[in-house]
Amino acid sequence: MNQLSCFVQSCNEAEGGDSAVSSTKPVADATPKTARGRRTRQNILDAAEKEFGERGFHEAAINRITESAGVAMGTFYVHFESKESIFRALVSHMGQLTRRWIAERVADAPDRLTAERLGLEAFIEFVRQHRDLYRIVNESQFVAPDAYHEYYSEFAKSYQRRLREAAAKGEISQGDDEQRAWSLIGISVFLGMRYGVWDDSRPASEVAKGAADFIEFGLKPEAR
Amino acid sequence: MNQLSCFVQSCNEAEGGDSAVSSTKPVADATPKTARGRRTRQNILDAAEKEFGERGFHEAAINRITESAGVAMGTFYVHFESKESIFRALVSHMGQLTRRWIAERVADAPDRLTAERLGLEAFIEFVRQHRDLYRIVNESQFVAPDAYHEYYSEFAKSYQRRLREAAAKGEISQGDDEQRAWSLIGISVFLGMRYGVWDDSRPASEVAKGAADFIEFGLKPEAR
DNA sequence: ACAAAACATGATAACTGGTTCATGTATCAA
DNA sequence: TTGATACATGAACCAGTTATCATGTTTTGT
Hints:
Chain A is mostly helical. Chain A has helices at residues 35-59, 62-69, 73-79, 83-106, 112-129, 131-143, 145-168, 177-198, 204-217.
């Protein structure tokens, strides 16, 4: 049920900025050294995902997380510096998970336009499978604005690059790729919300098909 | 500086659903009966807008709101039922303010495609002028999900209608107007965030122009 | 086997901030 | 003027939190 396996390697960058300060104090937020530690850390992470996803950052309670993880309060702070810190770890992990999932599903698309459709379909499916995590990312806008900013900037950057390449190959028109990247992200996010989170009755492929048509031809009449 | 004049008439719908229960207790959240009351209420509202906008819902403090409004803590609860209640009032007001602003700027567009461009330009300008209020709407997703849902559903509904009319007139192509409406909203919101909130160095008209091109022609090469 | 390091505990300190309420004061209708 | 209603006050209440720390237990390397 929980998709947070293979988390361990991805959590150090959270506090990465000023980590040159290697204090002699216990370094929370770092990968544990023993198997027991890793197990515990993972349990806390899983519990946190559930708690944050269900209640949101502010309503979420550390004591509920630790209880649900089957450890004592203090243990939380052995592994994480603070409530915000574990939240950031979750957000950062989400970015990777999402990108990886979409990348896989898009890998063998013959061209950019097909990739757009498959990518959107994959995204909607992903959202449906991870409503909680989707919420976490959205809420990071207020809890950890820089994490949120980075999350989408990362997306936009690679998006932009692929658009540029596709334009060079003539697969798509020329245009302002930065703007187009953000537009496409906006489309995904809102369709993901509308047809992924709020109402999952329409097949993802159908939504993706309709959107792909809009993305390809725009609103111009008689364009095809 | 503050755009919350003409607020009074719009705040009753917040608790409107089950208001048949006309208790004998002081009805907070209703329009005050005397001039003094209206003045005070407005002061609180203005202060709340600033406070919520700057700090976000959870960091915002009632005592700072009342202090900034020049009234005592208790006075807040004479006029509003709770912290969440005033927040909802603000969100609902934002919807009207935004729609009105855009509607004005789009009123005399000759066709739908032009309206799209002008509307986006107006929206970006609006966001730049009202960063605080924009933030309030976004955060409502977590504080008052139903208010958020209604906010965008309202937008989508009227958007959809206009697309349908435009398609009937042949100004734009046929398509799934619900999906297209949500896509267009997504574009606006993300461009608004990227070029309105995060970076306002590019002229709104330029952003709108680029986006309008994408909206009109899509990514298809050689379409024009 | 033994010390050192890593990990775990959980009661509680220390605090925050929304909401209440008993008690006023202003306003208005008659 | 007077009674009733509307509005205002702000100290105190209170529930709920995060984070700490002194003390244990497990694991690891030698």
